[in-house]
Specification:
Strands 9-10-2-20 form a four-stranded antiparallel β-sheet. It has a four-stranded antiparallel β-sheet with strand order 3-4-8-7. A four-stranded antiparallel β-sheet has the order 14-11-17-18. Helix 1 crosses helix 10, helix 11 runs antiparallel to helix 12 and helix 11 packs parallel to helix 13. The protein is of the alpha+beta class. It has three domains: 205 residues, Multidrug efflux transporter AcrB transmembrane fold; 89 residues; 108 residues, 2-Layer Sandwich (Gyrase A, domain 2), CATH 3.30.1360. It contains 13 helices and 21 strands. Strand 12 and strand 13 form a beta hairpin. The longest helix is centred in the C-terminal third of the chain and has 34 residues. The two termini are 18 Å apart.
Length: 517
C-alpha cells in the first residue's frame, strides 16, 4: 500500500538526514569528532607513490640448503651411517653412501614422515627430489618445495613491509601480492618516496658479534666494513644476539653526550645471552652489525644484565628513528629489490577528480532533463530521490572512511543509471496499471508491487557481480565494486522508501485527478 505510518516516515527522514549530514563532512568542516570523517582518496586521485618490489629468494634457498646439509650430517652420524663428500653445488646437495646402506638412507628422504625431507600432503610432494646415481645421492628443490618456500617468504615479507609502512603513518596504504615473488605497494599522498624506498630496501638483519683481536685467526671470522666507510674489522661469525630477541627499540638522546642513540629492550632469552656475553667479554669490542655493515663497535666496560642497551653510531634523529622502526618491525626474510616505481602527482589526481565530476554532472543533468520531460512531477520526484541517493552513497563511504579511486567514481556514475532504471520500470508499470484501473491509489500501489520482482532480480545479479569483483579483484577493481555494491543498497532504499513516500504524498493529495502519470 502507499500508506506510510508516522514511525516509518520519522525513521526514513532521520536516516536520510543523518547520512546527508555525514556526506556533507567531505565539503564542510565540522568540529564534531564523529562527523569529522572524510572519504580517503586513492593513489590515482590523491597522488602518491607506486612501488613494485621483487623478493630475492636466493639467500633463503642457500640458507635452507646449509641447514639441511647440517641436519643430514648430524642425522647420518647419529644413525652410524657412513657417508662422504657431503657438499652443496649449484643449489644441489651431494653426498655418497655405500650400497649396503642406500635403501635405508633412501627411505629417510622418501617416507611421508621424513624428518629431513618435509612432505606436503596438499601437493603430494616432498621439499626435495632425490636422485641416486651409483653411490651418489643428489637432493634438489622440488617444484612444490620452491613454491612453498617462495610463498612463505612472500607472506612474511608482506607482513614486515606492512609494519614498516604503518609505522610511517601513511594513510590507507595498499599492499598486495603479485605472483609468488613480488609485492605491490601503493602509498596515497606520499610524494617523496625516498624514505620509504630506503626503509623497504633494507633487510634489517641485526646481530651482535665480538670483534676478533688476532687478525691472523681468520677461521670462524669474516671481515666487515663500517657503515661510515672507515677501516674493516675482523668479526666473529658466532652470533651473540640477533634482532629476533628485541622487544622494543626507540630513538633517544643521551643526556650525558647529547648524542642521538637507539635504545633497545630484550626479551628474557636475549637478556640472559646478553648478560652472559657482556659478563665474560669485559674489555672486548662488541660489533653491532646491520645487514653486513658494522654500525658501531663499543668496548664492553661493565656487564649488562638489565635486558636493555643502546646503539650509537653518529645518528641524526631521523636516521635513529628509521633504525628503531626497522628493528621494531623485524627483519625481512630476504632482500627486496625495487623493480618499478611511479609517482603520481596531486595535479594529475585533481585532473582525474575534475574529469570524474564533470562526467557525473553531465550524466546527472541529462538524466534530470529526461526524467522531468518524460514523467513531469514524478520525474521531479525521481530527480530529488536521485540526488538524495548520491548523498546516501557518499555518506556510507564517509562513515567507513572508504578509499575512493577513479574506478570508484565510475561505480557512482553507474549507480545513477541504475537508480533511474528502477524509477523508469516503476513508472512504466504504473502507466500500464492505470489503463485498466481508474483508482489512482490502486494503480500506483500495483505499479510499485508488481515491478518489485524485476528490480530486485536486476540488482541482486549486479550485487553478485560486484561481490565477485571485490573478492577476486584488487586495488582499483575493489574500489569500483565497493561503490557499486553500496550504490545498490542506497538505490533500493531511496526508490522504495524516499521516492515512494514522496509519490504517496502527491497521489493521496491528488487521488481524484485523471492521468496523474
Amino acid at each position: 500500500m502507499l500508506y506510510f505510518s508516522k514511525l516509518r516516515i520519522i525513521l526514513v527522514s532521520i536516516i536520510t538526514l543523518l547520512f546527508v549530514y555525514i556526506a556533507s563532512s567531505n565539503f564542510i568542516r565540522f568540529d564534531d569528532v564523529f562527523f569529522n570523517k572524510k572519504i580517503n582518496l586513492g593513489l590515482d586521485l590523491q597522488g602518491g607513490s607506486y612501488l613494485l618490489l621483487e623478493i630475492d629468494n636466493d639467500p633463503i634457498l642457500i640458507q635452507k640448503l646449509q641447514i639441511t646439509t647440517t641436519t643430514i650430517r648430524n642425522y647420518l652420524k647419529n644413525k652410524d651411517i657412513i657417508f662422504k663428500d657431503l657438499k652443496i653445488v649449484d643449489k644441489n646437495i651431494f653426498f655418497q653412501i655405500n650400497r649396503a646402506d642406500q635403501e635405508k638412507v633412501k627411505l629417510l628422504f622418501t617416507e611421508s614422515e621424513s624428518e629431513i625431507n618435509p612432505y606436503y600432503p596438499q601437493y603430494k610432494s616432498h621439499q626435495f627430489d632425490l636422485t641416486i646415481n651409483n653411490e651418489e645421492f643428489r637432493l634438489e628443490f622440488s617444484k612444490y618445495g620452491l613454491i612453498e618456500i617462495r610463498t612463505s617468504s612472500q607472506d612474511q615479507a608482506i607482513e614486515i613491509v606492512r609494519r614498516r609502512v604503518d609505522e610511517i603513518g601513511t594513510n590507507e596504504p595498499n599492499i598486495l601480492k603479485r605472483g609468488n615473488n613480488r609485492i605491490l605497494v601503493e602509498l596515497p599522498g606520499l610524494d617523496d618516496p625516498m624514505r620509504i624506498k630506503s626503509l623497504l630496501g633494507k633487510t634489517a638483519n641485526l646481530t651482535f658479534r665480538f670483534i676478533t683481536q688476532n687478525s691472523n685467526e681468520t677461521f670462524g671470522a669474516e671481515k666487515l666494513s663500517y657503515e661510515d666507510g672507515s677501516t674493516d674489522s675482523l668479526v666473529s661469525k658466532r652470533i651473540i644476539l640477533s634482532g629476533e630477541n628485541l622487544l622494543d627499540a626507540q630513538p633517544k638522546v643521551d643526556n650525558q653526550t647529547n648524542e642521538t642513540i637507539v635504545s633497545f629492550t630484550l626479551d628474557r632469552v636475549g637478556s640472559k645471552r646478553f648478560g652472559k656475553a657482556t659478563t665474560s667479554g669485559i674489555g672486548k669490542q662488541l660489533a653491532i652489525v646491520l645487514d653486513g655493515k658494522i654500525i658501531s663497535a663499543p668496548v664492553i666496560r661493565d656487564a649488562i644484565v638489565s635486558g636493555s642497551g643502546q646503539i650509537s653510531g653518529n645518528f641524526t634523529f631521523q636516521s635513529a628513528t628509521d633504525l628503531a622502526l626497522l628493528l621494531r618491525s623485524g627483519a625481512l626474510p630476504a632482500p627486496l629489490e625495487i623493480i618499478e616505481e611511479r609517482t603520481v602527482g596531486p595535479d594529475l589526481g585533481q585532473d582525474s577528480i575534475n574529469a570524474g565530476i564533470i562526467a557525473l554532472l553531465i550524466g546527472f543533468l541529462l538524466v534530470i532533463i529526461f526524467m522531468f520531460f518524460k514523467y513531469r512531477i514524478f520525474g521531479l520526484i525521481a530527480n530529488i530521490t536521485l540526488l538524495i541517493n548520491l548523498f546516501l552513497l557518499i555518506g556510507i563511504l564517509t562513515l567507513f572512511e572508504a578509499t575512493l579511486t577513479l574506478p570508484g567514481i565510475a561505480g557512482i556514475i553507474l549507480t545513477v543509471g541504475m537508480a533511474v532504471d528502477a524509477n523508469v520500470l516503476i513508472f512504466e508499470r504504473i502507466k500500464e496499471e492505470s489503463k485498466n484501473e481508474k483508482n489512482n491509489i490502486i494503480s500506483f500501489d500495483s505499479g510499485y508491487v508488481r515491478s518489485k520482482t524485476a528490480i530486485i532480480d536486476a540488482n541482486i545479479t549486479t550485487l553478485l557481480a560486484a561481490t565477485i569483483l571485490f573478492v577476486m579483484g584488487s586495488g582499483p577493481i575493489k574500489g569500483f565494486s565497493v561503490t557499486l555494491g553500496v550504490g545498490i543498497f542506497t538505490t533500493l532504499f531511496s526508490v522504495y522508501f524516499i521516492a515512494r513516500l514522496l509519490t504517496s504524498i502527491y497521489v493521496l493529495k491528488n487521488k481524484d485527478k485523471e492521468n496523474l502519470i
